[in-house]
Amino acid sequence: MKRAAGASVATVGFPYLVRSSALGNAGTVAASERITLGFIGTGSHGIDMNLKSFLPQPDAQAVAVCDVDPVHLKQGRDTVNAKYGNTDCSTYKDFREVLARSDIDAVMISTPDHWHVPISIAAAKAGKDIECEKPTLTVQDGRVLCETMQRYGRVFQWSTEDRSVYEYHRMCELVRNGRIGKVHTIRVELPSGPDTPGNPEPMPVPEGFDYDMWARRLGRLIPKTVSTGTSGGFWIIRAGN
Predict the structure, then answer these.
(1) Total number of domains constituting the chain
(2) Residue % of the chain over a pLDDT of 90
(3) Which of 1, 160, 191, 203 is found 20 to 30 A from 100 (Cα to Cα)?
(4) Which of the pair, 116 or 236, is modelled with greater confidence?
(5) What's residue 83's pLDDT?
(6) In b/e form, how buried is each residue of 176-202, taking b as 16+ CB within 10 angstroms?
């Protein structure tokens, strides 16, 4: 009894120390108030445009990254851990493992186009809110996506970032209020993109790359080879659909 009492006193005398940041002190957001995020797709755009945009947000917490490419996966993990100064970021090759985590509130999807809608729908059914890169692969995909979000009551946002840029809002304001006179002609230019397909020659799948997961939705339409470049990969995907 004396030993037990001594242990209890020791416990009371030396309480567990909680960092002030966890409680929302020191100018931070309390952990209970942060949105926990999983990042599905950590290629160049997934990291440089999306992951790095979320990491500075005080009310967001990246807890997991997912990619079929082990190189991209490691880059995503290291980017998160470097920001938080720890090794807590979990890694996955299968997006379903991210969606299965009850502690993740939302996901950022930065995959190739053919996976945008299937992962978004799966995320909604798993109770996650979603931000996803544009576009859908087909018009029908878009309709199914909208209906699913309404059915499950999820928050969904396309990454149409230009709609949120101040300069574009200012331009619209000037035009709509007649500040530049009567508009009679509007010309629209878009990035031209590659004008030739990627290298069509078969080449082996990179070591560690989960090709079956990457191409699963495309099935037999895509041979088990990969392109030598990002743009080429995009065109091969398009040709297969």
Answers:
(1) 2
(2) 51
(3) 160
(4) 116
(5) 96
(6) eeeeeeeeeeeeeeeeeeeeeebeeee
Residues 124 and 19 in one domain: yes
What is the value of pTM for the model shown? 0.74
Is 70 exceeded by the pLDDT of residue 106?
yes
With a cut of 70, say whether residue 3 has pLDDT above it: no
Q: What is the CATH number of the domain that holds 120?
A: 3.40.50.720
* Residue 138 maps to a domain: yes
Inform me whether the pLDDT recorded for 241 exceeds 50. no
- Examine residue 133 and state whether it is found in any structural domain, yes or no: yes
Domain that holds residue 213: 196-241
Tokens of 5: 């009492």
Q: Are residues 46 and 156 in the same domain?
A: yes
Question: Do residues 211 and 139 both lie within one domain?
Answer: no
pLDDT in tens, 14-24: 444 445 445 55
Pair (101, 211) in one structural domain: no
**Nearest C-alpha neighbor of 91 from the set 104, 78, 107, 106:** 78
